[in-house]
Structures are given as C-alpha cells and as structure tokens.
Amino acid sequence: MRVAIAGAGAVGRSIAGELLENGHEVLLIDKAPTAISVERVPQAEWLLADACEITSLDEAALQRCNVVIAATGDDKVNLVVSLLAKTEYGVPRVVARVNNPKNEWLFNESWGVDVAVSTPRLMSALVEEAVSVGDLVRLLRFSHGDANLVELTLPEESALAGTQVGDVEWPEDTSLVTIIRGTRVLTPSREDSLEAGDELLFVAAQAREEQLEDLLSVRRNSAAS
C-alpha cells in the first residue's frame, strides 16, 4: 500500500515509521526545509513541497496512493489537502488530523475526509475509557455514514454477561468488531460468549449509540428491576 503523509513533523514521522514497519510505501511531504529530516525516517520518500498546491501533488503522484494522511498542525491545510486528494486524485482513503476540536465539524465527506482523528478528543476518550465501565466512549469518528468507533467495557452486573454474541439483538446500524479480553484480541463469532470486563469495540451509527449503551450497561438492568 502506498501512503502519502502531508506534514513531516513529529506526528507525520511517527505515523510514517509505523507504516514502514508494516511493509507499506510512504511519502512524506512538507514545505518547510527544516522539517525535511531524511535521516530520521530514511526508508521513506521525501518531498519538499506545499501539499496545498496541485503542482506539488502532481509531483507526488497522488493518484498512485491508496491512502493520504493530512497530518499537519494547521487544520486549514489538512482540509485543503483532504479535499484535493479526494476530488482531484480520487484517493480511496483520506485520513485527517484535527488540531482544534472546535473545527471537528468541518472534517467530513464534504471536505473529502473519510476518517477524522482529533488528538485532544482521543486523549480525553482514552481517559474516559480507562475509568468508565458500562458507559459508551466514542474513540473515533468516520465521516461516511455518520458512523463512530465506540467502546464499552461490559460491567459485572450486565444481563448480557455469559450471552453468546449471536443471541444478542444488536441495534440496527451497529457492528461488534472486536472483543478485548485481558491481553487477547478476539474477532467475535456468533458462538463467542460475552464476559464481564470485556472491552467491546463497535462501529455504530451515532443515532444508535444511546440504544447500544442501554443494551449493554448496568442502567438497562436497573430499569428492568
């Protein structure tokens, strides 16, 4: 997979390193000469250019990329890069960094963004996830279809503990994608049973989040008693 990353700062370089370790081709683009640190990520391709300029993106051959990541520290730049990548070059997957949570509403399919990653929101979500049991925590927002990656740790008192995945009537527009049980990461099958303490990761429509939380949480059981 070929990936172009706009923004060769600490965030961009870190992403590049991870992708290279996983066997992908990576191109780092930045207009600041001081950001071009080839020795830090020598396996990557580097391009000194303005990623907001069509001529620069032509030089980067963006049409050959499977993914573009707009990872600069400027939300305006990330939006422009995302829009150009999607509309001018037809890049299948565009991921954009949101620096200011107040701008998060802009990072949607209208601007060519498939996945918006807000570092402040993600950090606060991880704090919530670490201390919350039985509460739904939104980890990541997907622009297309208004879907989110959400997590809930199944509480001891949940009526669904011990229930097989295939026997649960999940809300529409939700999909259980992963069960994290201790140090194990499980791809759920219909025969797998839910256990108290499981971290459940779903892709769910935002309109279904409250319904999903009611299904899994202690509050559901309390209301029924």
UniProtKB/TrEMBL annotation:
Residues 137-218 form the RCK C-terminal domain. Gene3D superfamilies: NAD(P)-binding Rossmann-like Domain, Regulator of K+ conductance, C-terminal domain. GO terms for cellular component: plasma membrane. The keyword NAD applies. Residues 1-117 form the RCK N-terminal domain. Keywords: Ion transport, NAD, Potassium, Potassium transport, Transport. GO terms for molecular function: potassium ion transmembrane transporter activity. InterPro entries: K_uptake_TrkA, NAD(P)-bd_dom_sf, RCK_C, RCK_C_sf, RCK_N, Trk_Ktr_HKT_K-transport. SUPFAM superfamilies: NAD(P)-binding Rossmann-fold domains (SSF51735), TrkA C-terminal domain-like (SSF116726). This is Trk system potassium uptake protein TrkA.
